[in-house]
Design goal:
By secondary structure, this protein is of the alpha+beta class. Strands 6, 7, 8, 9 and 10 form a five-stranded antiparallel sheet that branches. It has a four-stranded antiparallel sheet with strand order 1-2-4-3, with helices on both faces. The protein has a two-stranded parallel sheet with strand order 5-11. The protein is built from 14 helices and eleven strands. It folds into three domains: 114 residues, Trigger factor ribosome-binding domain (Alpha-Beta Plaits, 2-Layer Sandwich), CATH 3.30.70; 194 residues, Trigger factor, domain 2 (Orthogonal Bundle), CATH 1.10.3120; 100 residues, Chitinase A, domain 3 (Roll). It is extended.
Length: 447
């Protein structure tokens, strides 16, 4: 077997692999003999079908399978042995000569390769990148205390209704013999848009009747339809008054700021008083703010280094062919819209690869486990779980690592963290204090 390399330009290479009979004949004959032993054919004992008949029936497919395997192995061996840094995957050349497996004994297969261009990934103390330090305020701590108090509150029955209470009611349309009748409908007066109507539900007791026109109470037709359990197009037929009979009043009461709440949030006896509780919350918020600052830094670092790399020649025609090959639903119009972003992603990937190589970055199993734990803890935190037991956390991580896609995402996450750490320690950080509100505005401008 022979491989001929043709350098079309700096970023496009064609490999032509020549296959002769001696390369595949022995293996093909062996596979035909193996197939012969398995074939059942009327008139012949099992395993005694003539090789000529087996070759006639299955020979071409056996030949194709063996040549495809040989060519694939030789293609990737050449890429590895010659240390070719390719983009995407090799593609059959558009100039591929016709091949006839029925008659030919020698074959040529041409493949197009997109070569990764050289890219400048140097970074030093002269490289300026902004780093935004978000200011932590007492208001943030106060708000988080309120959030926890609300999250760990409790429901109880009430005698007199307040605006935010949940009411269970029966409702009946006024003045219509076959009008709508509702049983055990649930709603809260706090979502009523009309202030006067909202007030009419406050201070009521079980058994009281309140007359309300839902079409006047709410600004949104969807809310009216949901309350009356009808379709929006039916609202016009039921836009009069309804009598609401209150059957039950349920009130949600926020948790008291005491040891019981401290234990529920951070685990038993982790904190002992409100001051320690607020300090623990402060640490928690600071950790989240630091993560947000690092995220913004990663965006700015990427933008800075991509800009520094400048204009780079890419195998554009090849990459567009490859993109359409891997995504059959991708149209030419959509590809053109997305191509600039695709190139920036490639630039950043190449920059990261070069920095990882020059800094001897390695990813260990422990790195992946620690990253997975951070992801898991962040997901638990969304549900108010800040004191997750180790066995639960480790089990969750183990489940995550069963999914190859999740593993790939974690590997990318670890690599991003390591590269960002290198950039942060090498570049000149222009530290800027900023309020959370202004910081969020900065993120919005990036979208």
């Amino acid at each position: 077997m022979n491989v001929e390399r043709k350098d079309l330009d700096a970023v496009n290479v064609q490999l032509v692999i020549s296959v002769v009979k001696a390369d595949y004949e022995e293996k093909v004959n062996k596979d035909i003999n193996t197939t012969r032993k398995k074939v059942n054919m009327p008139g012949f004992r099992p395993g005694h079908v003539p090789a000529s008949m087996v070759k006639k029936m299955y020979g071409t497919q056996i030949l194709v399978d063996n040549i495809n395997k040989l060519v694939s192995e030789e293609l990737y061996k050449y890429i590895k042995d010659n240390n070719l840094s390719i983009l995407g995957d090799p593609l059959p050349s558009e100039n591929q000569k016709d091949v006839n497996f029925e008659t030919d004994e020698s074959f040529e297969f041409a493949f197009d390769l997109g070569i990764a261009p050289e890219i400048d990934a140097t970074i030093d103390g002269k490289t300026k990148i902004p780093y935004y330090q978000i200011e932590l305020t007492d208001t943030m701590i106060d708000d988080q205390v309120k959030t926890y108090a609300s999250r760990f509150g409790s429901y109880s029955k009430a005698e007199k209704s307040e605006e935010k209470d949940i009411l269970k009611v029966d409702a009946e349309e006024v003045g219509k013999e076959n009008g709508i009748k509702l049983t055990d409908a649930i709603f809260s007066a706090q979502y009523i848009a009309d202030a006067k109507i909202k007030k009419s539900f406050v201070g009521k007791a079980v058994g009281d009747i309140v007359t309300m026109n839902p079409s006047k109470a709410y600004d949104n037709e969807s809310e009216v339809a949901a309350l009356l359990k009808i379709k929006k197009e039916e609202i016009g037929d039921h836009n009069g008054d309804f009598n609401f009979t209150i059957k039950e009043i349920t009130r949600y009461t926020e948790a008291e700021i005491n040891q019981d709440l401290f234990d529920k949030v951070f685990g038993k006896d982790t904190v002992k008083d409100e001051k320690s509780f607020r300090e623990k919350i402060k640490e928690q918020i600071q950790k989240n703010l630091d993560a947000d600052s690092d995220y913004k830094f990663s965006l700015d670092a990427r933008e800075t280094l991509i800009k520094k790399a400048g204009e780079i020649q890419f195998p554009d025609a090849f990459l567009k062919r490859w993109a359409k090959t891997t995504n059959k639903e991708l149209t030419d119009e959509k590809l053109e819209e997305q191509y600039a972003d695709m190139i920036n992603d490639l630039k950043w990937h190449l920059i990261q690869e070069k920095m990882a190589k020059s800094n001897n970055v390695k990813i260990e199993d422990q790195d992946v486990d620690e990253f997975a734990k951070k992801v898991a803890l962040a997901q638990f935190a969304q549900y108010g779980m800040s004191n997750v037991p180790d066995d639960v956390l480790n089990g969750y991580v183990a489940d995550m690592k069963k999914d190859q896609k999740a593993i790939n995402n974690m590997l990318n996450g670890v690599m991003n963290e390591k590269i960002n750490a290198i950039i942060k320690s090498t570049a000149k950080l222009e530290e800027k204090k900023i309020s959370l509100e202004d910081f969020n505005k900065l993120l919005e401008t990036k979208k």
